[in-house]
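Q: Hi! Curious about what Phosphoserine phosphatase looks like structurally. Here's the sequence.
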Amino acid sequence: MNLVLQGPQADLDTLKQIAALAHPARIVELGAHAIRCEDVETADDINKAVDAAAYAAQADATFIEAGRSLADFSLLAMDMDSTLITIECIDEIADMQGLKPEVAAITEAAMRGELDFAASLTRRVALLKGLDVNALQRVYDERLRISTGGEALLETIQGAGLKTLLVSGGFTFFTERLQPRLGLDYTHANVLEVDQGGRLSGRVLGGIVDAEEKMRTVQRVCEELGVGTHRAIVMGDGANDLKMMGVAGLSVAFRAKPVVRAQADIALNFCGLDALATILA
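A: Let's find out. The predicted structure is below.
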């Protein structure tokens, strides 16, 4: 096993001190804030000690099989809200109605897995009834930002020949704009119904993209590509991402809820999205 340690604020000396807990045979410097520790010892007590020390130093620790690289994969599938982008779009849309605190509380509970996602989305969308659809463009223009390292990761992923999928419990209004902007191959999200007056009806058209649908989407795209889901990397942050992460060959929790971090192969708590490329370099 290898251990990759990296953190935007962590210096090499600090990372090497953490590495010593796993007794590596070799340490390779990967930059000013990242190292790869080769042929490390792994046991529950060692892993826990490394994780605790890394977290205290605001660094991310990843134990991974030696030799794993982007060449092992054919697809990168990503959640959108709070993963590829920094915001929860529905919360920002609700802010246009003066309802952000109420909607954001429901979103947070759903992401922790405390509420059924489909029911919570139906409830939140209903609160948006009557909002001018132009408010969505304002959210896109004024508030939507790509997460740190997102564009760099996609450039690396696409350069390595992997396909990309953005699968979201959010809305097509945003995925359809991000697709050409970032050169994404596939997108799938919920469709907000708009009435003839150009206002949101408070309903979603068609089926809701919940945890099951996210998983099915990853499976469908892999089938289209002619590969098994073990060839997919899946990134997410909320409980509704767990099922698609569960069928992946490699799962990545980004700034994720505790329930997601606990089940992911890789947890990025401090680094940007491009830290994945460092791990699989």
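A: A fun detail: The mean pLDDT is 96.
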